[in-house]
Amino acid sequence: MASQIKSKKRVAEHGEVFTNEREVKAMCDLAKDETERIDSRVLEPACGDGNFLAEILNRKLNTVKLRYSKNKSDFEKYTIVAISSLYGVDILEDNAQECRDRLFKIWDTAYTENNKKECIDDCRNAAKYIITRNILCGDALTLLQNNGQPIIFSEWSLVAGVMLKRRDFELSHMLEMQDNGYQRDLFLSSDDYDTEIGAYIPKPIVEYKPIEYWRIQCQEA
Fold it and tell me: Model's pTM, two decimal places?
């Protein structure tokens, strides 16, 4: 069993205590359908080195394998959808980096084992880029990154088959909807209410043109 603490100093200064694997699995089982759904978005506001996100990614990738293992193109695409749906914040940079490394290793192992010689480095680079944007060092209480800038997450949406569309949102706007009781989607914000459809319309701070998912790291606004 892995240790629940890295050091007494970190516990005293940051209250850092990691959740045991058994408890992680049990808690994920309480939301089994969502943790296994490929495109369900999950935000862990104190992600540590990724215990919960790693478990959820494994579950999502198992779903991808069950559905798409025989079609290497679809398998590749939906592993990107799976990794793009996970978000995390941690106040310590070493934890955030360990979480990024851990998620990429899980993703790359599944990708390599299934697609073998058909794996491409562009897709690996796309996964790394998405993870870098999705796992941030910051404080989920102040809603600021460690550089003092607002926490900004990217929404990744698969469109037109193989195209990935990116829209950036401030976490503070995303949480306004949670405060208002709207918890249907992580990226809904309360900036604009459409009376015709009776719902709030998301207002991204930046919106990008769709691009092939394996080229997302090359995208410009």
Answer: 0.84
